[in-house]
Automatic annotation (TrEMBL):
It comes from the Bacteria. Keywords: Oxidoreductase. Residues 2-380 form the FAD dependent oxidoreductase domain. InterPro entries: FAD-dep_OxRdtase, FAD/NAD-bd_sf. This is FAD dependent oxidoreductase domain-containing protein. One of its GO terms (cellular component) is plasma membrane. GO terms for molecular function: D-amino-acid dehydrogenase activity. Pfam families: DAO. GO terms for biological process: D-alanine catabolic process. Belongs to the DadA oxidoreductase family.
Length: 399
């Protein structure tokens, strides 16, 4: 929006940028992993989660009515055709976004933090690997390569510590990786120097002042900020703002965990980011840091870091990279992925207002899709031809 010459006020309740869900995520621009969670296999996975049989998917707030509303919509999106439709939206958004990410650092003259070196998807189970390989969509660009165990280790020697457990993997050439929080902090510093951007941290939005179908001002704990248009990019708190206006965004906070370790032997850890599809963990390195993320926990807005969850991650690191990192000083974190039942984010104008827009609900792919979603919304708001059509989650209150 600022690039298009508009005056932009960024308002955030926290003390700085990327302090909520973007704080310690895996940082993978995971184009090869852009798949809707809701799909034919998901109901069985949910039953396992309810029964407490899966350490990577947990339901700890069964009585939460929001979870049940969300769950019904999730189940309605589990048919093969809905899964294909939603995955197609996520893939188009991710590929578009990834191309913009590559240009963003250059455009803002930021130090190169994002590495465009591809990403790996690893398997420890033969049957799972074969099923996955059979399901890969060929985009006709040779962007996905199937690798047996030896080829995998040859491509990424940092995986040799876990070679005995691996059966094979896929290399997605279109994936990238970078520290999302660091990138966001640098972007904010850049924006701070631009005359048409003002930053309002430690400022909580408590409402939107409306006159008929126009939002006139954003009401905050520090007073009103007049506006010509509003974009709600408020993650899991979006419904707190939209509900008093008469519509609800179905976004569930799906808790995930990360652990970050200091690397002591760079040769013993991977440089290419990967997702372990069998154990459902993501692993990435930035400089001297190794980060491992995992777990989808349905625990309403509880952000506490549970001992059982972090020991699951810590055990994986000990087994896979125990000699290469300092096992004594990990930092653990939990974040709430703003997740829609279908998968794609809400991206568009709220039907009953002329100037209220939403960009929220990016789930497990918020960093991956961020550049594209921002650009698409700016195109829509300024009346330009949009680069992609039909990528938003379906919402009766959104156009
Ligand atoms: C463990 C884990 C690993 C992940 N790994 C990846 C990955 O590898 N790749 C990837 O693409 N994605 C990943 N994600 C997902 C990604 O981190 C999220 O999708 C993304 O951070 C969501 O960003 P957001 O800005 O929409 O929401 P948030 O980061 O939650 O930001 C919302 C902001 O809105 C502000 N806000 C809300 N309400 C108000 C209000 N009333 N007033 C003022 N401010 C308000 C909050 O203060 C906050 O700063 C991961 C997530 C987790 C938890």
């Amino acid at each position: 929006m600022a690039k298009r010459g508009l005056n932009v006020a960024v308002i955030d309740a926290l003390s700085g940028p990327a302090e909520m869900c973007s704080r310690a995520n895996a940082g993978i621009i995971a184009v090869g992993h852009a798949k809707a969670w809701a799909g034919p296999g998901a109901p069985a996975a949910m039953i396992n989660a309810f029964a407490g049989r899966d350490p990577s998917v947990k339901v700890t707030r069964l009585t939460d009515p929001t979870l049940w509303r969300w769950g019904v919509e999730f189940l309605l999106n589990c048919s093969p055709s809905a899964h294909r439709r939603n995955t197609d939206k996520l893939q188009r958004l991710s590929r578009y976004s990834r191309d913009l990410a590559a240009a963003a650092e250059v455009e803002m003259n930021l130090p190169a933090e994002i590495r465009h070196q591809g990403g790996l998807y690893l398997f420890q189970d033969k049957a799972q690997f074969s099923t996955y390989v059979a399901s890969i969509e060929d985009h006709g660009d040779g962007s996905v390569e199937v690798l047996g165990r030896d080829a995998l280790i040859a491509r990424e020697p940092g995986l040799s510590g876990m070679s005995g457990r691996l059966v094979g993997g896929l290399f997605s050439a279109t994936d990238s990786v970078g520290d999302c929080r660091l990138f966001t902090q640098r972007t904010t510093a850049y924006l701070n120097q631009i005359h048409n951007v003002s930053l309002h941290f430690k400022t909580r939005v408590i409402g939107l002042r409306r006159a008929n179908n126009i939002i006139e001002a954003v009401q905050t704990n520090h007073g009103d900020i007049p506006c010509a248009a509003v974009i709600l990019a408020t993650g899991v708190e979006t419904s707190d703002i939209t509900h008093p206006l008469g519509f609800r965004a179905t976004i569930y906070p799906v808790k995930g965990y990360s652990g970050t370790w200091k690397i002591i032997d760079p040769a013993g850890v991977p440089t290419i980011p990967y997702v372990d599809e069998t154990e459902l963990l993501a692993v990435a390195t930035y400089g001297r840091k190794l980060r491992v993320t995992a777990i989808a926990e349905f625990a309403a807005h509880d952000r506490s870091v549970s001992e059982a969850s972090i020991s699951h991650i810590a055990e994986y690191v000990r087994q896979s990279f125990g000699d290469a990192v300092d096992l004594e000083t990990p930092e653990f974190w939990a974040g709430l992925r703003p997740t829609t039942p279908a998968g794609p984010p809400y991206l568009g104008r709220v039907r009953m207002f002329d100037n209220l827009w939403v960009n929220a609900g990016h789930g497990q792919l918020g960093w991956t899709m961020s550049f594209g979603c921002g650009e698409l919304l700016a195109q829509r708001i300024t009346g330009e031809q949009t680069s992609l059509e039909n990528v938003s989650a379906t919402a009766s209150w959104l156009v």
